[in-house]
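User: Hi! Is it possible to get a structure for several chains at once, not just one? Here's what I have:
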Amino acid sequence: MKALMSVGALVGAIALLLLVGMILDVVPSNTVRLVEGYMPIQMLLEVACFVAGFTGLSYMLSSMGMAVPRFWQGIGFWAFVLLYLKFRVYPPIPFSVRAMYGTVSLVAVFMWVSANEDDWKKFKQPIMNVLDAQSGANKMLRYAYLVLIPVLVGFTSFNAMKPKSEEPIELRTVHPAPPASTKVHGKTYTLQTSQNPYRVNPEGKFDQEYSNKLIVEQGMGRLMAPNANPWDEKNQGYLKYVKEGGEIFFQNCHFCHGDNLNGRGLHAFAFNPIPANFTDPGTIAQLQETFIFWRVAKGGIGLPNEGFPWASVMPPWEQHLTVDEIWKVILFEYWHTGYYPRTWD
Amino acid sequence: MNTSMGKKAGIVLASAFGLALFSAGPLVLTASAEEVPQGFKKGELAPEPPADMIEAGKRVYFTKCVWCHGVDGAGDGPGADRLWPRPRNFNQGTFKIRHTASGELPLFDAKKPTPGQNDLFETVTHGLPGSAMPSWEGILTEEQRLQVLAFVTTQLVKDRKFTDKQSESQTILQLADLKPKEATEESKKRGSELIVEKKCVECHGMEGRGDGNAFNLKDDWGFSIQPANWHKCWNFRGSRQDPYNVKNIFRTFSTGVNGTPMPSFADSTSVDDRWDIANFVNSLCERDPEGNPLPIDPLTDKPKINFVVPSNPVEGEIPTDIENEAWQKTQKRIIAMGGQITHKPRNFVNRIDDIWVRSLYNEKSIVYLLEWDDRTKSVAEGKLPWAPTQVNVDVKEQDPKTGEEGSIAAHQNNYAVYNDAVAIETPVKWQDLPAPIKPRYLFGSNEQYPVDIVKWEADGSLRAFKGTGWDKDFEERDSYEENLKVLKSEWKNGRWYVMIQRPVGNKKDQDYDEDTLFEMGKYIPTVFFAWDGHNGDAGRKMAVSAFYYTFMQPPTPREVYIYPFVIAGGIVLLEAWVLTRRANKRKGKTL
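Assistant: Yes, the chains can be modeled jointly so their relative placement is included. Here is the combined structure:
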């Protein structure tokens, strides 16, 4: 038990030091990188580490006779949650969301300190002591609070009332409903029944199972499956078209969507919102190939009214690419991210 | 390259000579150590990576890298022709960012990913800002990055060999042991003198904006190359995602940039002088008004963007002097610019990648002060062969063809020169647009909801246009031009300073189906366009920004100064109430 607790204490101390370093900007906040896609679980693990660490720390301190009063434990933990959300999590969470999490954790802390009558009394004690001001120190504290609280509240309200120029908040519909059919280069494609003409086996037959076997492997790095190199000149069918699609992608799309299809291309920093990240499980992995066909062919301007606000400079690629080229690019995007397109059934 | 090769051979010879005399005693040793530039030490070549790493690296290469760097690593993948700078050609073993002496191969050890001791690994990890090479950290694991480098260094570097002791040597900058000199005013002042003495300004320009000898520079492959702009340290290739770190500048200055005209200054400059120069160069990088580094967005490795451009109120005339207090007090915003690649002629390589904007307004007008770096002042030499208002025009000379000769990199600096220009676009009837009041497309929604464009060109003209849709030609608005005014336009040492004035409008005598009404306290969507005439930019071949907001700051209302006091007073009363209650309760108890 004791050993376990000491390990916990050690973890807690290190974790706390790291967090303090990040807050004071001594340690860069990307020291332990939050990896895209794994971020939620990473954060949960981290917070679990912290909690274990705190348990260990408080155990160690109390066994050394320096027990932290419940009052400070409660306040400390709440402060920790707020600081963690503000300084650790990147990309930053907006204040309104942090306020929500802050309130929830405040309630949780209250439930924890008032779990039974005894704890609640212990928690209240320091507050009562200051109110009663029996000792000199408490008297000092009481006067200090008497002055500080109004000043602080006044100042905060001044800040809140001062006219400010903060960016208006924007909400987006990420995947608007597609139309039933779309007309590209004079031909009408029904989204429900169309197929990617290049998702074919070496015999030239549409074969999703065949192509699914040859896409890049999921897992760190997303590398191509062994012996499925699109640059192999002997390729027939699917992989040959993947390579052709890649050529089109790297002449037209990577400028925004990035060399790794993660929406961080050369020009991406200039746009708001930044271009779609295809490696995110929420984009092409959730959609049918024909949906992508419609989006690529018609671009931002082709979004329906409810796909609001459009705020997209995605051009209608039918202006620059042939139908075949569009299908090949889509084939490449699924290959490179290692996702299977969703099917209609 | 010839000189650097010669120098390398010299170093090899010298070190061989030193080694031969090594046994002769300590006296000779000090003599041979002098052959190594100050701050450098001789190092060992790294061992050959194991075969299984090379094989694994091939898999990484053909998934991720081949698309730009090509099957044979000659920097000629499908992406190459529309990029400038072009992707690296690995065959010659010429690498830019190193800790090794000029002309030498970079540090690479497939088994030791130690920061500061593995140049190629750090390049892949952090990417090369200002080029299309991204940071691969978080995408490829550390092992995968080492594997792919094992493949590149053994299979794709063809003219040199990383393990050949006969022809290769490593003279390594001991950056970890060298303590940066404190960036005192004195050090920076000495640096500013040294950059003139060392002729840095000949290429990098008087103010370090890379505008010196910007036109005649070529890299080893004959492609046009630009000197670095010291004011944008986040675009330094060697910034290693830590742009304000003076060590990066010290390293590049000490080792030179292989394959480019940037030589190593290690032989001719003492370590102390090098720190002075690095401190000065570092001090030029854009900073906030307090002199702190700009916050860098880790998602883009560029300065963080605030999309609201505040405009401050001015009583009376708006000053035209940038040094005026009103301008100095106004917050500057960085506007990120990307290439317009959606309509022909497309701009894959935009040479203007940011604009600094400030704004002031009075009762009648609003003035934008736009400052942006442009290495060349361009005024059109002839007439543009197509209408600049036109969209979707096939302009043959602007269209990159495939193959090295047709590539954008080969065309750089061979374009017909047009006007440098800048434009501000605001939507008409923005009040009627649903929140967040942005037009449907960058160039206007439709006939009913057009945009109002004010464009200044380097020939001195200031014109107004109307944009009515995503692929509609702009329409010139002759009637509006008399309302516009250029308060200032100056190109100095690689930077444009342009002040454009336009009416804020009033509800009485203007037609708001045509013009934008600038209303105080409202968010008015604003887009910026920029053209670099020497990049062949004209018409839709331009750099574009996203939607920003112009916000005319209202003066602070009086209530703001009153209510906080009232609230604070209320809190005092509340405190008194709590205290009395507690005291009474205690009394009740004790009694």
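Residues 1-33 of chain B have pLDDT under 50 and may be disordered. Residues 93 and 105 of chain B are 7 Å apart (CA to CA).

User: Great, thank you!
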